[in-house]
Specification:
29% helix, globular
Length: 330
């Protein structure tokens, strides 16, 4: 590797947010035990916010963005990892308080790294990334809450996005009848290819509702939040469950206790990186079996890191589809 390498860095100077590419050296990197040559990262909604500065995601400056990464161990002072291991990192405060994956090289604490499970390539694992991993946790939470395919339709909001695409594909593979919510009719054929049976317009879920409406959904995976989540809760069947894992539509929740005390609806909060190591491993293993290779291919677009500023704007405006994998070395 050359003495210098490229990274996308955000900084703050006198209250002014600025971002761009910088050449770094090993001496610039954090004092951690595992050096990784990064090949790929991904684009998540949170990355869009961090790159653009449109929300206070970054809490420590300067910051190398990118909440996901995969790469090969180049040097290790920890017995858990050896040179040549293919490793991944998702979450753990990357792009917030810890330097992340938008760099050709990075040093990480071994505690945040995981060896890439068998059957996955570097591109595959980033096609899943934080968004797909969150989707799998959401599906597992619905299962744990007792939502079964024979109980009725399951709604997926933001269905053409990263979380929604993986949730749609996995739920369909497991036998659920998936109804996909999207504001982009042009994505319907794409969503059908992932297993969606029917569609509901985004606007049909974003209007103010009564405390209870006609019960329709056996369960839901919601990455939108706000009024959409409130509407879903009002329309969920008795003993149904809703996995809430996003806030693209806002952080408020204008609902009442009625869905919970009259229908026994369960609202399941999904934290994208739980502390339970066993649950994390189970989620990745489930993705290896429940997300088929052709579906991974269908949801994946590969873009160069050099386009990250434009890509950030696109994901924030809802103009991306599926999962965007970032080739860090382009």
């Amino acid at each position: 590797m050359p003495d210098t390498f490229r990274a996308f860095v955000v900084d703050e100077d006198g209250g002014t947010y600025n971002s761009g590419f910088r050449d770094l050296t090993l001496a610039d990197l954090p004092d951690e035990k595992v050096l990784v040559d990064i090949s790929h990262s991904s684009l998540n909604y949170k990355d869009g916010l961090a790159v653009s500065g449109k929300a206070k995601i970054v809490r420590k400056f300067p910051m190398v963005c990118g909440i996901d990464m995969v790469g090969t161990v180049a040097d290790s002072a920890d017995a858990r990892f050896k040179v040549g291991d293919l490793v991944l990192g998702t979450g753990w405060g990357m792009s917030e308080t810890m330097w992340g994956g938008y760099s050709a090289r990075m040093k990480f604490s071994p505690d945040i790294l995981t060896k890439v499970p068998k059957g996955f390539t570097a591109e595959n694992i980033m096609a899943i990334g934080t968004a797909g991993y969150t989707a799998m946790l959401s599906v597992m939470a619905l299962e744990h809450a007792g939502v079964r395919p024979e109980q009725g339709e399951v709604l997926v909001t933001g269905a053409a996005g990263g979380v929604g695409s993986v949730a749609t594909a996995v739920l369909a593979k497991l036998g659920y009848t998936v109804i996909a919510s999207t504001g982009r009719p042009e994505t319907h054929n794409y969503l059908k290819s992932l297993g969606a049976k029917d569609f509901i317009a985004r606007t049909d879920l974003s209007h103010p509702t009564k405390p209870l409406e006609k019960a329709h959904w056996a369960g839901a995976v919601d990455s939108v939040g706000g009024q959409t989540l409130a509407t879903i809760l009002a329309q969920t069947k008795e003993e149904g469950a809703v996995a809430a894992c996003g806030l693209a539509g806002g952080t408020d929740l204008p609902t009442s206790v009625m869905p919970f005390i009259l229908r026994g609806v369960k609202l399941l909060g999904i934290i994208y990186f739980p502390a339970d190591a066993g649950l994390r491993a189970k989620a990745w293993n489930r993705l290896a079996t429940d997300l088929e290779q052709d579906k991974i291919n269908a949801i994946t677009t590969i873009e160069p890191l050099s386009n990250i500023t434009d890509l950030a704007e696109k994901i924030l405006s809802g103009q991306t589809q599926g999962r965007v994998v970032i080739d860090v070395n382009r």
